[in-house]
Design goal:
5 helices
């Protein structure tokens, strides 16, 4: 997981990862609650409780986006799919100075609603479509890239700088 994810991140030493955790998420909207619970548990274990609110908001937006826009029709929430492996996966990785939240999904297309400042200003009254704007606002940087090798789909990630 780290190798394809590193392709889109600022330079990091993969051997310096001090913690990583991941969980599979089913194609149900209550998976967002599960992702937040997993995030709280992991951040608590790493002693990063103070970051929970911002990280949980970003995780919620990334997982919701994956569930709404990146799943095939038969595995979308409310669809008929019964896949053996969860279609969306949340990864949390910690370095000494960085925390990365990454959501992997089966779609190879751009994240839906890709954030552009002009589009957000024009549509600031919309109830939806602002998820990546929130990700951009609460994280230090974010991006996405298609997966390579045996893995198909993409990873959308957000990076948080950790204070010493």
């Amino acid at each position: 997981m780290l190798e394809p994810l590193r392709q889109g991140l600022p330079p990091v030493d993969p051997t310096a990862v001090s913690g990583s955790a991941s969980c599979g998420l089913p194609a149900r909207f209550d998976a967002v609650r599960g992702a937040r619970t997993f995030t709280r548990s992991t951040l608590t274990q790493w002693g990063l409780d103070a970051l929970f609110d911002d990280v949980a908001l970003v995780v919620s937006e990334l997982v919701t986006n994956a569930l709404r826009h990146a799943l095939p029709d038969d595995s979308r929430p409310g669809g008929g799919g019964g896949e053996p492996e969860p279609p969306v996966r949340l990864h949390l990785m910690r370095w000494s100075t960085r925390l990365v939240c990454a959501v992997r999904d089966p779609s190879e297309g751009r994240p839906s609603g890709s954030f552009t400042p002009a589009a957000t200003e024009e549509n600031c009254d919309l109830e939806s479509g602002r998820g990546l704007f929130l990700v951009d606002s609460y994280s230090d940087s974010w991006g996405w890239h298609p997966l390579a090798g045996r893995l198909t789909g993409k990873v959308v990630w957000a990076l948080f700088s950790l204070q010493d």
